[in-house]
Amino acid sequence: MRRWYLLPFCLLCGGLTAFAQSPADSLLKKLHGTLHFSIRQFNGTTLVSEQSFRNNAAQTVDGSWQLKTTATAMPGAIDVQAVCRLEQGTAAQSAIAVSLEFGKWSTHNYVMVPASVYNGNRYRVIGNGYNPSYPEDMYYNPKVPLTISNNPRLSTEINGPSLISLQTGNAATPAICFFSPSEKKGFILLTTQQTRLGNSGLIIEESSGSDSCVMGITAPAVRKLAAGFGDFHPSGDHAPDWKAGDEVTMHFRIYVFEADGIPAVLSRFIQVRGEPGGPGQPRNILPMSKLLQCASDICRNNFIAVKAGAYYKPENNEDFQLGWVSGMINTYPMLALNDTLERQRVAAELDFVVNTLQGKSGYFYGGITAGGQLHSEKIHPSFPVAQAMVRKNGDVLFWLMKHLLLLKAQGYGASIRPEWEQAARRLATAFAATWKKYGEFGQYIAPETGEIAVFNSTAGAIVPAGLVMASRYFHVREWTKIAADASAFYYLRDVERQGLTGGDCGDISQDANSESAFGFLESLMAMYHYSGQQRWLTMAETQAALCATWVLSYDPVFPSGSAVDQLQCHMAGAVWASIQNKHAAPGICTSSGDALFKLFRATGNKRYADLLRDIQHAHAEAVNMPGHLTTHHLIGSSMERIQPSDAEGKESVGNFINTRNSWTETAGMLMALEIPGIYVNTDKEEVYVFDHVTARILSKDKSAITLAVTNQTPYDAAVSLMAETNRQASVPLAYTAFLKWLHIKVDAGKTVEVRIPRD
User: Which of 50, 104, 323, 708 is buried deepest, with most CB atoms within 10 A?
Assistant: First the structure.
């Protein structure tokens, strides 16, 4: 451990005081960077003065300050603790700032704040609010630039204002990252959510000529404007008044490392995202089997027959929405229950979907009212032809193929209607035709003509998965090639070159989002599943790292008295929605995340298992159960808001909304089915637990391993167990593998022993 005192570069006065080279300076020098501390004084949210520390000291109008820093050198990193103390006098409305200034800056640098800023959000902007309408020039225009909502962003113009001002609650991990193509280096600044002053601020500001950039942390956050859902509003932030003896401690960590591209930065990020605040501490509160029972009971009671047809209600009204948020996705766990009545209901919904919603081109409309009126999505007065989301059509192909595979695996292949297979074949054919004509899948499609109405985005993220599944099911080799070409295209254009995927939600523009990230991971793992080629696994690891940027990496502190605080929820694992919709949610929309489990099996890297376990446990924290009321709705219900940010106002932070979202319940059911409660590799003698139980090896011999499984929750559990050898683990996991998993009954508060044969 080494201590040093910083004599900083002063941004306001422009002066530079010579000082002994510190570990931080040596590290930052690789990126032409310097580090300094200062006191910022405000009038409300307006900065009125700034005094830098020199020789450990700073003097403001009425106060004398002292700074003490402690540094710990780490491989490629420096960990810093800084204590700032007002020794004498007073200081009104003052905050402490840590600033890292980088010279030789380039606007070509990739800048990322997890769940908030990707590639600097340096894209065309439209609207000033939630889900803005698309201007006319975005329709039927193959050259349309990536277009986002009004979010915090760096400027697309030289000499324009270029400032991003956030608070740590805006980020899935309190971090600022960048990649410098010219220097071939990556940078990560990690900090904690809070000091004693509350949430800290995260600042990125480019100079007027864009040739230098300051990145920093302030304690506390003092933003002029807070980012909302596609707009901004006065932040209401306030710097505190200080008296003699007051002090604050800031903790941050700086990484500088060799990087040959954006994937290298993402890969390093997933390795360090739990530092320095520490990873989350998941609680065992709700066994997966109990979650499945409660959520499936809700779904059972939501089956309706209306003028449009018969189906499980996707949301809280009787209209039907296909894909995306549960329509014809919630049917899959209901089919997996292997219940005669529910199998009949699923068949009725599939009949309704393929007979009512498929257009002449083979593409599907995105929804229909209970009265039978088809929906058109993202419509514009100048273009009356009805449109549908490419994402929804990708979901239809992927999930329809999964339904067919599940029916066959259950022994009900004879019940598959020819119309279902024909609909899937027609949709795969439509996607193939679109790819051959346009070289992309676009964002919005015209179901009658098959034309792309809006180009660009990663809305087709999950399409390759559905295409390669259909290719093998229908024995059409061409579709496998198209799936491979499309996967390579999206990876190169969006992941490798832009460090983001986006645009596949119906309520955002082409903003970066988590759903496309996880959807594309599904596609890459599908390509690996069917080809066995290592290149897809390598891409999937990078993609999983991108997915991790959207997931809360720690258990946030929520306001005292808020619902999350009162329930003492541990929310590491909540999944942020998009850079427009600035909130986290319980689960992936709409998926179990089993691609992460498959990646864990294929690589042995526990980070992917940890990420998935955290997602599942955060989901359980949001489920409405007796003594743990979140939605104040049905038992087993959940809703999509876990809100660490003040995007919806400070009063919304940490408070649930008293309603339910079908998609979050569907995600919970899928996790309960497709993720094993306990995974055992008998050759490695390793046990990994995803469910809300504990498991330990009691004994082992040449023929078997014996586990002790303990359930400390108040609910009886039926825990699924998957055990395999190294050889079995080398084979990609079948989509219906969960049907063969053993289920162990463990009553509440009890421990059982389980003997697992090594073979």
Answer: 323
Query: CA 652 to CA 569: how far, in whole Å?
Result: 16
| Whole-structure pTM value | 0.96
Helix, strand, or coil (residue 406): helix
Q: What was the pLDDT predicted at 18?
A: 35
Q: What DSSP line would sit under 137-178, residue for residue?
A: GGTT-TTPPPEE-S-S---SSTTS--EEEEEGGGSSSSEEEE
Token code pair at residue 21: 């080279």
Amino acid making up residue 690: F
Question: 36-95 pLDDT, tens per residue?
Answer: 999 999 999 999 999 999 999 999 999 999 999 999 999 889 999 999 999 999 999 999
Q: Which residues contact residue 11 at a Cβ distance below 8 angstroms, ignoring those fewer than 6 apart?
A: 36, 38, 50, 52, 99, 101, 214
Adjacent-strand bridge partners of 321: 367
SS3 call for 112: strand
Can you tell me the distance from the alpha carbon of 124 to that of 593, in angstroms, rounded to the nearest whole number?
31
Distance CA 24, CA 33 (A): 9
| Residue whose C-alpha is closest to residue 12's, from 50, 69, 43 | 50
**Residue linked to tokens 């983001």:** 500
Classify the C-alpha dihedral 420-424-425-430 as positive or negative: positive
Alpha-carbon span 47 to 37, nearest angstrom: 16
Any idea which residue has 């997996």 for tokens?
336
C-alpha to C-alpha distance for 113 and 277, rounded to whole angstroms: 16
**Cα separation, 575 vs 489, whole angstroms:** 26
DSSP assignments along 460-518, one per residue = TTTHHHHHHHHHHHHT-HHHHHHHHHHHHHHIIIIIITTS--B--STTSSS-BBHHHHH
CA-wise closest residue to 580 among 514, 517, 508, 650 = 508
Phi-psi sector, 700: left (phi>0), alpha (psi -120 to 50), beta: beta
Distance (Å, rounded) from C-alpha 592 to C-alpha 585? 13
Q: Is 310 exposed, middle or buried (0-12, 13-18, 19+ CB in 10 A)?
A: middle
CA distance 393 to 506: 12
Distance CA 151, CA 132 (A): 12
Contact of 654 with 558, CB cutoff 8 Å: yes
The Cα–Cα gap between 692 and 573 comes to: 14
Residue ranges of the chain with per-residue pLDDT less than 70: 1-21
